[in-house]
Amino acid sequence: MNTFSRTSISLLVLACANIAALPAMGQDQPASNDQIVELNAKLEKANSSASAARKKLALRRVIREIETLLEKNATSPSRFEILHVLFRSQQMLVSVDNSAANRKSFLATCEMLAAAPNEYAALRLDADLLLTQAKSARKGADSHARSDALRPLVKRYQDTAVEAKVVRIAMIMALEFGNTKLVNDLRKIVAERFPGDMDLINFQREKLAGQVFGAPFIGTFQRVNGKSMRFPMDFLGTTTVLYFWSKEDKGLEDLKALATDWKKAKVEHKAAGRFQFISMNMDDLPDAGEAILRKHGLDWQALKMPKGQDNPIYQTYVKRDTPTLLTISPTGYSAIYQSGGRSNRTYERRLQSMLASQWAKARYTSQLQSIFSGEFLIMSSNGDFDPSAPPEYKSISSETVTPLPRTAASVPEDTLRAIQACFTAAPERYNTPYDQVIAGYKKADALCLEAIAAHPKAPDLWIVRNRRITALMGLWKVDSDQNAFDSAVAESKSAIEGSFPPGTDVVARLCLARQDLRAPEADPKVIIQNFVKAAGGQQASGPALTAASLLALDTGDRLLYDQYRRTFLDKHADNPTMWTATAFLLDRYHRYRQYHPPYGAGWTYGRRQGYFMSIGTPEDAKRSFSTEFKTLDGTTVKIPESSNGKWTVISFIPTAAGNGYFQRYASFSASRALKDVNLINAVLDDDADTARKLLEEKKVKEKNKPDTTPTLLVPNGMQNPLVQKLGIVPGVNILILRPDGTIAAALNGLAMSYQKGTIIQNIIEAEDEKIVDEAIAKGDLKEAKRLAFIHAPLKQVKPENAPRNWKPIKIAVPHLRSRAKVYLALGKLEAAFADAEKAYLAVNIKAGHISMRTEDLEETEALKDTISAALKQPESE
């Protein structure tokens, strides 16, 4: 055994050595696959021995043989495969002879195997798990600590072949140990990295005891004509309900009832363009039940579900008796939960509820359809359409581009302008009625066809083709017109055969990539990566990156979408030609709903949404802001120059009558110790006379109550470029500028209509805390203390002219945390703990209000635990 121990130690050193540093000629020749297969066979035979004594002897013989082979392959790539066989052999031996020597040898092998590189992740995993738990046990860790010890392991196995398996193992242990925090963190990992993994969807459905979670509905199905339809791609932008039905068990009666109520609801609730049904018959009918649908007057698409209820996709996403419904959000997500009984509500009531849901709202749906069709790629975000420098040409660079030459052979300017006029600019596009949008696309298609026929050799014909492709993809998105998409593909192929200025072929290539995704054996990741590579790779333009992010959404790949979104925002967020795309990618409401399942039962869902909309996290992009407003007497006010180094919060309002939103912030602004917040009402109408009249009426109505918030006019109102930059839509629109003039947050009417909190206060106070953190990190405790105690003074003196009901201002949570951190840095642990405890109680109440562990709670709890641990340390330490 001593010889074996020395061998183990020797091999451990070899395994941990830097393999890359070893010269290739010095490596041993790898063991043959036959040798490893032979060892595995001998191991299985030894393990099947009749008695424990015989098994021990047989296993030891195999182990000696493995060790001999391992010594001969100490530096060869195959050593990890041999180590894995040794690991299994020693594991079997320990099960029949749990001696200290056997355990020691087994753990030594685990250490060596765990050092294997990621390509051997599957072989090393069991050894890694065993070592992790063994180390926790030696430390006397409790159940929570033992499960938390898996966190580094989960991170280590990211991007390996067994990452999903590690997540499953960790979640099982976390559930067994009751570690809810780890379970939630693992659910987040699954949602971000494996949203459409059917094995993990089934695993969560089984293990999470009826909890609802979201997952993208992914699958390819055939129509009767043999053409493939891909989820989520073909249905993004519209709330889609899949109706699974059979002719058996009164299925036809149910279909008849649904058909009657749907035809009525579609008209009454103006559902066209925002809500649709897709039929999936479970009887394997040759026509997928299409004839039956038409008999009932339904124009639904009929898709085939091979094997009916036995289809793996059905078992994963639905798993209920038919007939049943599955709602898919406009972003492609469905709600997953344990099988339940059939709803006892009539279809009439269910349809009313579904059509009234947030995700089916016309304004929300319309914006998604516009973005998903790629319409923004041919629309100008800043200025009018210029035939010599169309939007897709200007957007290939942040620099000023040289106008394209126009000749007698070019498409006439009037023709190009007429085609461009068929498309409605944002944000007006998002409120345009469905029938007008359809009419515009059809008109654009017709005009483009005329122009192509009249000017087939025009050097700028690509401008026309881009707009025809966009119009057809618009019809595909808004009207679910698959024939329009087929026409777009044909047009894209013709366009690619022609000539484009470099970088202006994104529209056509986006369409062709979508067609490639329909192929039965398509590899979405490869298709998208090739798309970006063809567009310049690391130097890909803003339009190419946004198109790549759309392709990622088409395939339900959240990680890839976030990757291209991040790259775009880091490089192009301030590019004026891409303002519409930037505003969408930063939109707080869209960010919330992007991966949210179409499920809203229970009061907590509304509270959680309201919490997220008002959270103090700034937007994750670096954007500057500069503009000019006018006073009622015509004086120019420059922003941010006039801000005097203060926070500037601008409420964009349709008229000078205002919306009263700033009334709740008057006391907040006044109570700021630094007096560093400016509030401005900006009227999106530059008619000074009308504004003056409305302000006078408001003054009379409010009985001459002084209005401390200045009212300024936005030149050209809704036509001002800042509307595009900020993504302004009807409703309350708020812009929060930092003292340096950069944008902390821009919240449009959609986000503000659902936020339930003090968003302005939250943003500014979060920045206060960040500045204190930065001072502490630099070691400037004097500055950190100064800032922390300005916002969280130890004593608040009552002013001489204060009202009788005066009360000290309640110190906000970020300021309490800042003061606690300063106390901690100064070594005043008891004071630090007192502040951390107050902050913790406040955020815990808020977290309880929405029934979830918030990041705010996690951060505050971690600070409290850090201080608590420091208090428990002996003074000598």
Structural summary, described in words:
The chain is an alpha/beta fold and 877 residues long. The protein has 5 domains: 2-180, no CATH class; 215-360, 3-Layer(aba) Sandwich (Glutaredoxin); 368-528; 627-753, Glutaredoxin; 764-872. The chain has 37 helices and 15 strands. The strands form 5 sheets. A 5-stranded mixed sheet has the order 13-12-11-14-15. It has a 4-stranded mixed sheet with strand order 6-5-4-7, with helices on one face. Strand 12, helix 30 (688-701) and strand 13 (711-713) form a beta-alpha-beta unit. Helix 5 (100-114) crosses helix 6. The longest helix is centred in the C-terminal third of the chain and has 22 residues, at 829-850. The radius of gyration is 32 Å and the shape is globular. The two termini are 43 Å apart. Mean pLDDT is 91; it is low at 1-27. This is Thioredoxin domain-containing protein. Keywords: Signal. It comes from Rubritalea profundi. Residues 1-26 form the signal peptide.
Keywords:
globular, 877 residues, Glutaredoxin, five-stranded mixed beta sheet, 37 helices, four-stranded mixed beta sheet, alpha/beta, 52% helix
**Largest sheet: number of strands, sense, barrel closure:** 5 strands, mixed
Sheet with the most strands: spatial strand order: 13-12-11-14-15
What is the number of helical segments per DSSP (H or I, 4+ residues)?
37
What gross morphology would you assign? globular
Protein name: Thioredoxin domain-containing protein
Signal peptide: 1-26
Keywords: Signal
